[in-house]
Amino acid sequence: MSLPTKPVAAGDIRDKLIIGLDVPSVEEARSLVERIGDAGTFYKIGYQLAYAGGFAFARELIDQGKKVFLDLKLHDIGNTVEEGVRSVARLGVTFLTVHAYPQTMRAAVAGSAGTDLKILAVTVLTSYDDDDLVEAGYAPVPAAELVARRARQAREIGIDGIVCAATEAQAVRAVVGPDRLIVTPGIRPAGADAGDQKRIVTPAEGIRLGADHLVVARPIVKAPDPRAAAEAIVREIAQAAG
């Protein structure tokens, strides 16, 4: 079944909301996109859907005028990352994530050269807090300090944007400047369940803190009316941005 087509206007406020298609099958993703309709213009495909036919579905969305954020968080030896990014660029997606390790970021920049693909570097996952970093061997580096360090490296390498918690967006903006994107997951409307996220804010707070795009999955995907949930978040974004 084809998806409804409606061109996305340049600078459309709806583009600031990236809806995470965190579902196990293309059939469920397609149904969800149809239910959301023109309330959603930008979709994220992560591991769960990507490895269940999501790469082909990304092309389907792009053909229907949607934008796609492929959230693969690549991290491997330089040549593997570079060639992988080069293949992703041919899909026509808008964003691709890599982990913010210098060698990985340099390889991703090389792989995306000459294409429209924008590389986003993941600094510290929003499910991590300082205790998690200690457990991972980063002691005694607080999450905010590690985020700033990786953001600085990303800027120097030429990465297009940063993925970080909205709580760190202002500090990241001070590091990367006005010309790079800041994309923030861990967004929860007021009253929503935090789930496994530990550094969360509301959509309005995310925009006021300087995020360019907000990634929202469960509060929309699990809502009784996903379209209404998306529309409510877009209204909140518009009010905060105005």
TrEMBL record:
Binding positions (substrate): 22, 44, 71-80, 126, 188, 197, 217-218
Enzyme class: lyase
Domain Orotidine 5'-phosphate decarboxylase, first and last residues per copy: 16-233
Entry annotated with the keyword DNA repair: no
Keywords for the protein's UniProt record, in alphabetical order: Decarboxylase, Lyase, Pyrimidine biosynthesis
GO cellular component: cytosol
Keyword Lyase among record annotations: yes
Reaction catalysis annotation: orotidine 5'-phosphate + H(+) = UMP + CO2
Domain of life (superkingdom): Bacteria
Subunit organization: Homodimer.
Similarity comment: Belongs to the OMP decarboxylase family. Type 1 subfamily.
Role played: Catalyzes the decarboxylation of orotidine 5'-monophosphate (OMP) to uridine 5'-monophosphate (UMP).
Annotated PANTHER family: OROTIDINE 5'-PHOSPHATE DECARBOXYLASE (PTHR32119)
Protein name, UniProt field: Orotidine 5'-phosphate decarboxylase
Source organism phylogeny: Bacteria, Pseudomonadati, Pseudomonadota, Alphaproteobacteria, Hyphomicrobiales
